[in-house]
Write a structure and sequence with these properties.
Keywords: Coiled coil, Membrane, Transmembrane, Transmembrane helix. This protein is mostly helical and 143 residues long. The chain has helices at residues 2-9, 24-110, 115-142.
């Protein structure tokens, strides 16, 4: 009687139960399960990173292609503008050369002893021809 009264007063004094023994098969099962879960996690992370990498590469390729196309259009526009400018400059220089040639011819025909003016015109004509040649070279380089 006394034991039952003591147990009623002190409920945490229960009789001891022997600890459970884990069997080797249960430990092996949990180890294999743990390895499978880790392997699945690693494979899932690898697949996800490969997917993200392909997606980023495709986005980068599209952006690069659009930027290259825009740069090509800009470049072509600038080249066309420069070519038009050079052609206009060449036409203007040619008209100046023609005017100088006519003036030179007129001066030659009317010159008595005034070779000084003729020399100046020849010098100007030579300079204009030199500039024309440089412009043509620049235009050829741009093409």
């Amino acid at each position: 009687m006394r034991n039952s009264a003591a147990q009623a007063v002190y409920p945490d004094t229960y009789p001891e139960t022997p600890p459970r023994k884990r069997t080797k098969s249960a430990l092996l099962f949990y180890a294999v399960l743990w390895m499978v879960l880790v392997a699945a996690g690693v494979l899932g992370a690898k697949a996800y990173s490969d997917h993200i990498q392909r997606q980023v590469a495709a986005d980068l390729e599209r952006q690069t292609a659009s930027q290259i196309a825009a740069m090509q259009q800009d470049y072509d526009g600038r080249i066309d503008k420069l070519e038009t400018g050079y052609k206009a400059s060449l036409a203007q220089m040619e008209s100046k050369i023609e005017a100088l040639n006519e003036l030179l011819t007129f001066t030659k025909d009317n010159a008595d002893t005034k070779t000084d003016n003729s020399n100046k015109l020849y010098t100007q004509l030579a300079e204009v021809k030199k500039q024309l040649a440089e412009l043509k070279k620049s235009l050829d380089v741009l093409k």
